[in-house]
Amino acid sequence: MTFLNTSQSVALEAQDHWANLRRGEKSSLEAIYRSHVHDLFNFGMRIHSDETLVKDSIQDVFIDLWNYRSKLCSDVVVKQYLFKALSNRIQKELGKSAKRSAIHWMSEQETLISSPEQDLINDQQSSELSSKMREALEDLPIRQKEVIQYLYFEKLSYEDTSRLLDITIRSTYTLAWKAINALKKSILVFITYCFIL
Length: 197
Prior knowledge:
- Pfam families: Sigma70_r4_2.
- This protein has helices at 6-22, 26-47, 51-67, 78-94, 116-138, 142-153, 158-165, 169-196.
- It has 2 domains: 6-94, Rna Polymerase Sigma Factor, Chain: A; 116-196, Butyryl-CoA Dehydrogenase, subunit A, domain 3, CATH 1.20.140.160.
- The protein is 73% helix and 0% strand.
- The protein is elongated.
- By secondary structure, the chain is mainly α.
- Helix 2 runs antiparallel to helix 3 and helix 2 (26-47) crosses helix 4 (78-94).
- It is built from 8 helices and no strands.
């Protein structure tokens, strides 16, 4: 007898709801929404920090799912499909000339415990580093934000990420390298500045 882990059973349930949605069952659309809305919101906020835009984009994704249900592909990974649809919707809303916005991402720093004064310094440096990381992420193009989100937050493989971004695996590696390199440069400048002080 084969036992499925929780994520496998959730994925299978999502596939069942997807098939039912394609047949016009509104309750399945609602079930997919309830199962994924939290993850979609968190994902959307990491791409763009405008909460209203993200919420509206999620609603639009589900309206489109219902309106075009008969044209939906049967063979999809539901969560990945929704992420890609949301990303496309946000980019469409932002347009090509939109300003890049901050990603909500806080880096975790270990603080060495030595003295109240040192703790205060460490806290301040950690806060400044987190702020610098947010600024560095804000400066990344949206596609680079996406690749960081998929690979490091959603823990997707390069293959899955390339499918979601609709680019080759080689291009995915290049995009990830550019994003990480840009972040490293920004943080390195900050750390060097801290040591000089």
